[in-house]
């Protein structure tokens, strides 16, 4: 009886470590498409998501393509933008819906994620 309980605890611990390692970070490569804040380069929220929705400032995000990827930042280009815009790949806030959630929203400001839930501060 004890072995299944210990095994379950170990599996849950490992799963939580795996989730914690990526919480608040988007792993993107050139060619990936994401939804991004459309407010302009001076907007501090820099919200990005894998699902359409509103950014942390409350405006609709726009579909954009990753044209350059670095460790901490990507350059995104949307059809409506005159030029590429930089976005951080690690957010101060992130969707806290859990590993089953597919929106993967990150932002530099608090607010709601693309799936409508409150984002959680990344610690």
Q: How would you characterize this protein structure?
A:
The chain is α+β, with helices and mostly antiparallel strands and 123 residues long. It has one domain. 17% of the residues lie in helices and 25% in strands. It has 1 helix and 8 strands, in the order H-E-E-E-E-E-E-E-E. The strands form 2 sheets. Strands 2-1-3-4-5 form a 5-stranded antiparallel beta sheet, with no helix packed on it. A 3-stranded antiparallel beta sheet has the order 7-6-8, with no helix packed on it. Strand 3 and strand 4 form a beta hairpin.
Number of H/I helices: 1
Rg, alpha carbons: 16 Å
Oligomerization status of the protein chains: single chain
Mean pLDDT: 85
Main beta sheet strand tally, sense and closure: 5 strands, antiparallel
Measured as a percent range, the helix fraction is: 10-25%
Strand neighbour order, sheet with most strands = 2-1-3-4-5
The backbone outline, from C-alpha atoms, is globular
H/E series: HEEEEEEEE
> What is the terminal separation in angstroms?
36 Å
Strand content: 25-35%
Please tally the β strands and state the result: 8
Briefly note the structural class of the backbone: alpha+beta
Total of domains: 1
Uncertain segments are 7-21
């Amino acid at each position: 009886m004890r072995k299944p309980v210990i095994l379950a605890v170990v599996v849950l611990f490992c799963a939580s470590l795996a989730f914690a390692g990526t919480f608040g970070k988007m792993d993107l490569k050139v060619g990936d498409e994401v939804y991004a804040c459309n407010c302009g380069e001076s907007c501090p929220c820099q919200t990005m998501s894998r699902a359409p929705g509103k950014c942390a400032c409350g405006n609709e995000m726009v579909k954009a393509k990753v044209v350059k990827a670095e460790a901490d930042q990507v350059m995104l280009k949307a059809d409506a933008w005159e030029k590429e815009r930089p976005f951080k790949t690690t957010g101060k806030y992130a969707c806290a819906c859990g590993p089953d959630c597919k929106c993967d929203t990150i932002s530099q400001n608090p607010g709601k994620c693309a799936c409508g839930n409150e984002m959680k501060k990344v610690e």
